[in-house]
Request: fold
Amino acid sequence: MSNLSRIHHIAIICSDYEQSKDFYVNKLGLKIILETYRTERNSYKLDLAVGECGQIELFSFDNPPPRPSFPEARGLRHLAFATSDIEKEIADLEAKGISVEPIRIDELTNCRFAFFSDPDGLPLELYETK
Reply:
């Protein structure tokens, strides 16, 4: 039996720290928990709250390599955010200039979902929960 209870955080490496910080904080509305500049690495680490339990760690590094393909690269395929009102979330994102793909239906759960991207093209998803 596993003692794993939930996902604690998702780590994201960005190419432009200020642009990504603006996206996740000001456009997605995530709350800053802690922002740290690590002099020895010339790198920022920004801890962001996702709801009451989840976190995103946003990192900056000098010249990170690009994602090799979209979205079927090995590793993380996409990051999904739960919402109870997908249409409201889409309207909010589009009002902030963020392009969102059309809503689709998950054929296994019948739940609605839609994809959008962060400034580095990381695929993000809105997933409507009931």
